[in-house]
């Protein structure tokens, strides 16, 4: 694999790390709203977390995503960019040729499909750590023999090992079906709007978009992608949070049916506001980290090999 292809993976790693630092507090609120109980709205959730757990509560479970989502983003951007390059090579005989819209869509779906293999265990551990201190309030269910409100897992490694021992590989990949339904179309609505807005905002004659164009296009793409992905994100969060104190859902379809029967259609849009708000800074940081680090690596390569 050439240096150009490796640069995409390295730049994706930087972008992923930047997005975690920016977005984790909002991600915690989003997860609590979607999978938890007793929160009337976003503001009430924020105040409750702060009151019960102080500022540290918003960063609970961040160490694992910071270490792993960087790798996850590296794979997403690496697969996306290299698939685009391969399609341009096959279509036009030139990997640097501007990709067609269909090429961007195919590359996006490929990135979404591949990313689920890494992203499902990462999200499961993150969500279990975020949810484990929540008091469980269902009166008609017998929870696991763990006191609700007290930590079940000592950290990400212990969480991963415990789930693997008690639930096997199927437990680690719990929610994978919902994640596929979220991420395959979700990445199309991520990379296509980003590419479109970048091309639209960037002045004619510029070889690459400037940081402000990347920031704006990335933010808009994040709002669109996360806003439309919310229904499947709700299902995924519920499936992966399920298991801290009890096992309520048999699978993706069962989770959809139970959620709809108990809470109506509105449940699938729970957290859509925080998802859309969170999508802008997280995606801006992701694309800025990716584009700026890629530009720096290419500049260093040019200076090293004049």
Automatic annotation (TrEMBL):
GO CC annotation, single: mitochondrial inner membrane
Record keyword Lyase present: no
Top-rank taxon, per record: Eukaryota
UniProt cross-references to InterPro entries, sorted A to Z: MCP (IPR002067), MCP_dom_sf (IPR023395), MCP_transmembrane (IPR018108), Mitochondrial_Carrier (IPR050567)
SUPFAM superfamilies: Mitochondrial carrier
Main location: mitochondrion
Subcellular location: Mitochondrion inner membrane
The Solcar repeat ranges on this chain: 3-86, 99-200, 209-296
Entry keywords, A to Z: Membrane, Mitochondrion, Mitochondrion inner membrane, Repeat, Transmembrane, Transmembrane helix, Transport
Keyword Mitochondrion: yes
Topology of the protein relative to the lipid bilayer: Multi-pass membrane protein
Sequence intervals crossing the membrane: none
Molecular function, one GO term: transmembrane transporter activity
PANTHER family: MITOCHONDRIAL BASIC AMINO ACIDS TRANSPORTER-RELATED, SOLUTE CARRIER FAMILY 25 MEMBER 48
Family under the similarity heading: Belongs to the mitochondrial carrier (TC 2.A.29) family.
Protein's UniProt name: Solute carrier family 25 member 48
């Amino acid at each position: 694999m050439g240096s150009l292809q490796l640069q995409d993976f390295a730049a994706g790693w930087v972008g992923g790390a930047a997005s975690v630092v920016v977005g984790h507090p909002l991600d915690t609120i989003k997860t609590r709203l979607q999978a938890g109980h007793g929160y009337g709205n976003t503001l009430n959730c924020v105040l409750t977390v702060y009151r019960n757990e102080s500022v540290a509560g918003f960063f609970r479970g961040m160490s694992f995503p910071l270490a792993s989502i960087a790798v996850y983003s590296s794979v997403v951007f690496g697969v996306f960019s290299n698939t685009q390059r391969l399609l341009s090579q096959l279509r036009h005989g030139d990997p640097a040729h501007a990709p067609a819209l269909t090429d961007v869509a195919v590359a996006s779906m490929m990135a979404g499909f591949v990313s689920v293999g890494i992203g499902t265990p990462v999200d499961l551990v993150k969500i279990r750590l975020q949810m484990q201190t929540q008091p469980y309030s269902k009166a008609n269910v017998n929870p696991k023999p763990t006191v609700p409100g007290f930590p079940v897992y000592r950290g990400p490694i212990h969480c991963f090992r415990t789930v693997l021992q008690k639930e096997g590989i199927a437990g680690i990949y719990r929610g994978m079906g919902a994640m596929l339904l979220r991420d395959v179309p979700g990445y199309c609505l991520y990379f296509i709007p980003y590419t479109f807005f970048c091309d639209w905002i960037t002045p004619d004659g510029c070889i690459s978009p400037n940081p402000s164009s990347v920031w704006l296009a990335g933010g808009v793409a994040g709002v669109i992608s996360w806003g439309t992905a919310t229904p499947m994100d709700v299902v995924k969060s519920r499936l992966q949070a399920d298991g801290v104190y009890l096992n309520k859902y048999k699978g993706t379809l069962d989770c959809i049916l139970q959620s709809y029967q108990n809470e109506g259609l509105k449940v699938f849009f729970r957290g859509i506001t925080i998802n859309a708000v969170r999508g802008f800074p997280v995606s801006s940081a992701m694309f800025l980290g990716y584009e700026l680090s890629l530009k720096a690596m290419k500049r260093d390569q040019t200076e090293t090999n004049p």
